[in-house]
Amino acid sequence: MKQYLAIIVMDIKLALRLRTVIFFNYLFPLFFFFGFATFLGRADRIGGMVYVVTMSITFGVLGSGFFGAGIRAIQERELNILRRYKVTPITPAPLLVGSMVTGWIIFIPYIVLLLMMAHFFYQMPLPAHLFQLLVFISLGLIAFRSLGLVIASVANTMQEGTVLVQLCYFPMILLSGATVPESSFHGVMKTIHNFMPATYLVRGMSNMMLHGQGLLEKGNLVAAGVMLLTIAGGGLISMKLFRWEKEEKIRGRAKLWVLVVLLPFLVMGVWTWLKG
Amino acid sequence: MNEAPVIHVQQLQKSYDKVEAVKGIDFQVAQGEVFGLLGPNGAGKTSTIEILEGLRPRTGGEATVLGFDPDRQKQQLKDRIGVCLQATNLPTKIRVQEALELFGSFYTRSLSSEQLLKRLQLWEKRAAFYDTLSGGQKQRLALALALVNDPQLLFLDEPTTGLDPQIRLEIHGLIEEMKSEKRTVVLTTHYIEEAERLCDRVAIIDEGKIVAMGTPRELQQQSKGQSRIDIVTAQPMNAAALPQWPDALESRLAEDGRSLTVYSSRPARTLFEIMKWLDQQGMQLEDVHLKRPTLEDVFVELTGKKLRD
C-alpha cells in the first residue's frame, strides 16, 4: 500500500508541474468548450449545450487515455525511467494503478468545472443524477486509460505507439458521435459507429444529461459493464505485457492482445448491428 | 573465504536468440569484497550483472545472491541489494529529495533521505529538479538511490562511464567509503585504473568467458612479468652496439636512435646495467620511465584486444 500511495502522490506532483498536462487536460478542452458553446449553447438549445459538454468530455477522456496514459508510458520506457524502477522490489501493478488514479484525480475537477460552467454561463440544467454521471465518466476515463496502457504495452517504439494512438484516437473522435452527431451516420458508417468504444461513452453521457437517465437504465448499465470489462481486461493485459526497458521487444503475435481488450466493444457492435 | 559467499555463480550461461553472451562462467564473491568485472563492450559483463540483480533470466547454470535465486526470488533479492545502472533516468521534474523518498518507499527498510543527501554531497541540491543536475550530480543521486535501502550488496554497472576525471575521482572516493563500511560491491568497468584502485579481486571477461581472475597484483604477476623501460638519450645510440642486458627479454631502438625500449623480467637490475652502459658510452640521459605491467597489459596479452575496443 505504501508503494501505491507514494507513486500516486508523486505522479500527481509531477503531472501538475508539467505545463503540457495543464494545457491538454484543462486549457485545450476548455478552448473547445467555449468556442462551441458560444455557437451552440444558447439558453433555448439545451440539446446543443449537452452536445458541447459531451464533446468536451470525450476529447478529455480520449486525450487522457491515449496521450496521458499511453504515450507517457512509452516515453518513460524509452527514456529509461522505468529501468530505474525495475531494479527495485516493486511490480508493474503500483505503476499501472498509479497512472489510472492520477489520471482520474486530475480529470474529475475538470468535469465538475465544465458542468458548472455549462450550468451557470449557458443555463444547461445540472444532470438529474450528477453523482451517477461522474461514476459513469470515471469508468470511461479509466477504461480508456487502460486502452492507452495496453497500446503502450504492445508498441515497441514511440513511433509505433504514436501510429497506434492516432489510429484509435481520430476515428473515435470522428465516429463516436462526439463531434459528428450520431444522427448523421447511415449504412456502413452507422455500423462502424456501433463498433467504436467511445460511442458507448458518448451515448451514456447524452442519455444521462439530456434525458435525465440514471446509471441503472439498461443501456447505460450495459455501457458501464462494457467499460468495466475493458478496465479488467486492459489492466490484466497491461500487467502481463508490461515492459520496463525499450530493449525488451514484444513479438508480433502478442499484439493481438489489443483485440482481447476491444472484445467487449466488438460484441456490443455485433449485438447492436444484429438488432438493426 | 571463511563465510558463505555472498555471490556464487557456477557455469552461468545467457543467450539472446542464437547469440551466446555468457558462456558458462564460475566465480564467488565474499562478504565485504569489492569484485570487479573487467572487459570491453559486449564482453558479457552487463548480462552477468543483470542476471545476478534479478533483471534477466539466465539460460543455464547456477546462481545464488545473498542466498536467493535471482530467477525465482526476484522481489526478495531486489529488496536487499542496491543497484546503480549503466543507463537510467528519472522524471525531469522530480526533485532530488523526492526521488530518494519515492524509491525508499519501495523497500521494506530505508535510510533517511537527509542522511543520504548529506553523505552524497547533494544536500544543497535537495530541492533541485532532476533535469537541472550536472552529470556528476546525477551519478551521485544514482549512487544515493542504490544506497537508499542500506544494502549489504551493491552492483555498480560502469558507474563512472562518461564522467570527467574529477567527478570520476569523487565517485571512486564514494566507492572506497562503501568498501570501508564492509559492503560487498560488484563493479563492472572498462577503466583499468578504476579496477586497480578499487577492486580486491578482478575477473577479466571476454566474449562471455572469464579469461583470468585474481587480485590486481596476482593478475599482473600472471602476465609474462615484463616491465617496460623507456630511455631517451641526447645522442643517438648505435643499434649494432647495444649489448644483451641481463634479464632483458626484448630491446627496441627507435628510428631516430635516441629512444630505447627494453622489456625485462627484473627491471631494477636491467635498468642499473643500462645506466652503467650509457655512462660508459658517455651518453647523456634525457628521460627514463619504468612501467610495470598493468591490468590492461594482462588483458591485451590474454585476449589480444584493448579494453575499450
Overall description:
The complex is a heterodimer of chains A (276) and B (309). Chain A has 276 residues and is mainly α. Chain A has 11 helices and no strands. The longest helix of chain A has 33 residues, at 46-78. Chain A is globular and about 55 Å long. In chain B, strand 6, helix 6 (165-180) and strand 7 form a beta-alpha-beta unit. In chain B, strands 5-6-7-3-8-9 form a 6-stranded mixed sheet, sandwiched between helices. Chain B has a 4-stranded antiparallel sheet with strand order 11-12-10-13, covered by helices on one side. Chain B has helices at residues 45-52, 74-80, 96-104, 113-119, 135-147, 165-180, 192-198, 216-222, 267-281, 295-303; strands at 7-16, 19-29, 34-38, 60-65, 81-84, 153-157, 184-189, 201-206, 209-214, 227-233, 248-253, 259-264, 285-291. Chain B is built from 10 helices and 13 strands. With 309 residues, chain B is α/β, with parallel strands linked by helices. The mean pLDDT of chain B is 87. Chain B is elongated, with a radius of gyration of 24 Å.
